[in-house]
Amino acid sequence: MYRSYPARRARELSPGIILCVVVATLSWLIQRGEERAFGHAIIEALVVAIVLGMIVRTARALPARFAPGVAFSAKQILEVAVLLLGASVDLPELLRAGPALLVGIVAIVASGLTAGYWIGRMLGLAPKLAVLVACGNAICGNSAIAAVAPVIGADAKDVASAIAFTAVLGVVMVLGLPLLIVPLSLSHYQYGVLAGMTVYAVPQVLAATFPVSALAGEVGTLVKLVRVLMLGPVVLFFTLRTRKGEGRRGSTSIGRLVPWFIAGFVILAVLRSTGILPGYVAAPVRLVSGLLTIVAMAALGLGVDVRAVARAGSRVSLTVTLSLVTMLALSAGMIVALRIR
Fold first, then answer.
1. CA distances, 310 to each of 121, 168, 171, 307, 315 (Å)
2. Which of 92-101, 110-119, 321-330 has the lowest mean pLDDT?
3. How far is CA 203 from CA 141, 146, 320, in A?
4. Which of 24, 143, 213, 303 has the fewest CB atoms below 10 angstroms from its CB?
């Protein structure tokens, strides 16, 4: 029987989306249980959803029918959640560090790219694989790797190697980065900047910051989105370099240069900060954004295969780890140099 495309698409996505919603609901219930038992959540639902998703994925390989919905939840649902977050942020508060922070972000990303590439080369990685690892660390993890790979002509094996350990280490960052707040004496604003500068993917930034505070989450998201915007110039750079060096035609799209959800986040943040969007919408929009984010976190966990670390190889793993440590050091230095409080 003939089915319209929307109906077929919904049927294709529904198993994975339902699975993500189930994991997200369990995570929320666990958080509620913590709040009743201890008076507050020890581990927020955002983090619980990632861990539960990883447990499900590691315990048993998911049937292929779940893959489209999980991928949709990790990308499109997350993008909607980030866009909606713009309606609840206090833009003047987030931008109090001034233009120096923007310059610092650009400088750290450029330095992180350069350092990551040469760390990889010194450890014996092939040039294209070193580029992928460097881009993943300095910009936005898997998204940067996927965007740069076709431009430089990287093969599937290099892409898989670069993504595998990056995905797992990204979850380690979500769980471990908050532990640095006390020893480094970080304010919530400073922690938001550090997380936005070092955590790989947007969903991981949300999971690493919002359990700390709303301010940390909003600052981390803004800083991270600026890092994501750096993907445009980086893709353009490698496109021009590839055309010049190998005579190949590289291509890119406006969507890669300025993702739609980032543009939407900025527009809503401006409307909210100028009063065009009334203040009373902030709380309900933040609630919806938070619920969608938990679903996306579940999808993120379901997409992480811990066993892939072994397949990535020790040199890739060491390169990713050292590059991440470098980004942490550079970002902490930037916070001190700019006197961010």
1. 20, 11, 16, 6, 11
2. 92-101
3. 11, 17, 19
4. 213
The burial class, CB within 10 Å (0-12 / 13-18 / 19+), for 69 is buried
The helix (run of H) or strand (run of E) holding residue 279 is none
Query: Of the ranges 6-10, 110-114, 249-253, 334-338, which one carries the lowest mean pLDDT score?
Result: 249-253
CB-CB contact of 122 with 302 (8 Å): no
What is the per-residue pLDDT for 1? 46
CB atoms within 10 A of CB 146: 17
Q: Give residue 309's pLDDT.
A: 56
How far is 234 from 64, CA to CA, in rounded Å?
34
Segment 154-181, tens digit of pLDDT: 876 677 677 766 767 777 888 899 999 9
316 sits in the region (left: phi over 0; alpha: psi -120 to 50; else beta) called alpha
Rounded Cα–Cα distance for residues 50 and 172 (Å): 11
Separation of alpha carbons 169 and 131, rounded Å: 18
How would you label 286-323 residue by residue, b for 16+ Cβ within 10 Å and e otherwise?
Answer: beebbbbbbbbbbbbbbbbeeeebeebeebbbbbbebb
Task: Using pLDDT thresholds of 50, 70 and 90, give the confidence band for residue 250.
Answer: very low
Q: Which residue has the tokens 């005579």?
A: 247
* Nearest to 189, CA basis, from 216, 156, 158: 216
